[in-house]
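Record type: ASSEMBLY
Status: queued
Input:
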Amino acid sequence: AQSVTQLDSQVPVFEEAPVELRCNYSSSVSVYLFWYVQYPNQGLQLLLKYLSGSTLVKSINGFEAEFNKSQTSFHLRKPSVHISDTAEYFCAVSGRDFNKFYFGSGTKLNVKP
Amino acid sequence: GAVVSQHPSRVICKSGTSVKIECRSLDFQATTMFWYRQFPKQSLMLMATSNEGSKATYEQGVEKDKFLINHASLTLSTLTVTSAHPEDSSFYICSANRGLYGYTFGSGTRLTVV
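Status: finished
Output:
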């Protein structure tokens, strides 16, 4: 079975500052890794994913995450955040069959002006 | 893009009554849908996998007689919380499997049982 740990439940940060949202996973098999974002009153939206290939993956709005197999981590980073990035971010892991997702408890990113 | 519509977004019900939550895929067919539950400050926990035209597969510890799932068509799955109690108060969210395109999630339903 897989599990995901997001140690930070809330991360306050000022606009234009860098941010890192931490995600660690445990699994006995190879996995796929995902970051989802949930804006207020909306569903979860896929932000980025790692399936294979380059361990650094990027989203269209400036976020990036790096798969680190030795540290079993998939931290999410952005060099300069905007007010519009305020949302809750969920890290998730799936087995290669895509049948089940296991989510972390989420990290609320609060970007202050 | 693909949209999954979940209704209602919020519901308050009395203890002992039943509540139905709908999950619709609006512009694609979903043979498989998933139902999750999230308690405050906890992860989204998979409750069950809903398969069109067949019985749902429940995760360990989830009462199938309490959480009835019906997936009668390729675009609709419903979750009925029967004889709801305050401990069933939670955030319920569905997702649809779009194969190689990944998963699309509904906006969730906040259930409060009083």
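Annotation: The two ends of chain B are 37 Å apart (CA to CA).
Annotation: Chain B touches chain A through 22 residues (CB under 8 Å).
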